[in-house]
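Morning. Coffee machine broken again, so started the prediction first thing and wrote up yesterday's gels while waiting. Chain of 129 residues, entered below exactly as on the submission form.
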Amino acid sequence: MDKGYEKEGFEGLKIKASVAQRFRVFCKRLSKSQSMTLMAMMDFFEVNEISPDERLGPSHRTLERKLNKRMNAIIAIIKSIEKSQTKPTQAMLEALFTQTETEEAKPLIMKRDDELDDARFEDWDGKDF
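Came back before lunch.
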């Protein structure tokens, strides 16, 4: 018997047989007596200040599906940004930094073998032409 309600008597309610059968199945699923199940249902509606005729909106499953779709869309957007912006920018920066390192190692002006040394022109006064 339900605790705190052992000494109370029973009352009869007139409900349709199909509703009574459905209610009994519901009580078994909750593992509660019919009285405790009905009391829990009434408490739920009173505490949450809703009517049994009101709809609560989308179910938990539909909300979960919508969230999963949005998460998949966000992941796709992030991957797209990574492919189109982040990786090319990173490659350009790496190329820029590796290029400056190699340029520093090379002399800026290189002397060709066929160029004349300045030492050859030290005694030239420029009046030959």
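The first helix runs from residue 17 to 30. Going to sketch it on the whiteboard this afternoon.
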